[in-house]
TrEMBL record:
Keywords: Hydrolase. This is NUDIX hydrolase. GO terms for molecular function: hydrolase activity. InterPro entries: Nudix_hydrolase (IPR020476), NUDIX_hydrolase-like_dom_sf (IPR015797), NUDIX_hydrolase_CS (IPR020084), NUDIX_hydrolase_dom (IPR000086). It comes from the Bacteria. The keyword Transmembrane does not apply. Residues 4-135 form the Nudix hydrolase domain. The keyword Repeat does not apply. Its cofactor is Mg(2+). It comes from Paenibacillus terricola. Coiled coil: none annotated.
Length: 148
């Protein structure tokens, strides 16, 4: 059984009161998300999020710290979701090629944190970002516990 658990990493970049988002259909209610993706076989979590950010946004980054670890057991296969705070170290914004992606990214933007709800994010997640990620580095249980 090779698909008992899927590991997904996402990255948060906050600069001057703005947060990085990618336009990619998440659900019927939300068309924007944090950049990230699946961890590949043999890849560390850090390498995975740095690779995903470069592939999806064109930015070079480094991990600052672990923000949250969450579960999504109702996904198929079950999902372990790991969110990191990142720092931009270089690169330029660009769209990915999307050549192998069934859910392509249509835009990459930095938006004011106070506009997160207008982009389909929950008030709960927006508050976590505004408050500087209280309880960073902790296990939060179900993914919905952080409003995602």
């Amino acid at each position: 059984m090779s698909s008992l658990l899927q590991v997904r990493v996402t990255g948060v970049i906050v600069e001057e009161g703005r947060i990085l988002l990618v336009k990619q259909r998440v659900s019927a209610d939300r068309a924007w998300s944090l950049p990230g993706g699946r961890v590949e076989q043999g890849e560390t979590l850090e390498a995975a999020i740095v690779r995903e950010l470069e592939e999806e946004t064109g930015l070079s980054t480094e991990v600052v710290k672990l923000l949250y670890l969450c579960d999504k057991p109702d996904a198929s296969p079950s999902l372990l979701h790991i969110t990191f705070l990142l720092r931009r170290t270089g690169g330029e914004f660009r769209l990915p090629s999307n050549e192998f992606d069934a859910n392509p990214i249509a835009d990459v933007v930095m938006i004011p944190i106070q506009e997160l709800e207008a982009y389909g994010f929950s008030a709960q997640f927006a508050a976590l970002v505004r408050d500087g990620f209280p309880n960073a580095g902790s296990y939060q249980g179900l993914k919905r516990n952080i409003g995602l």
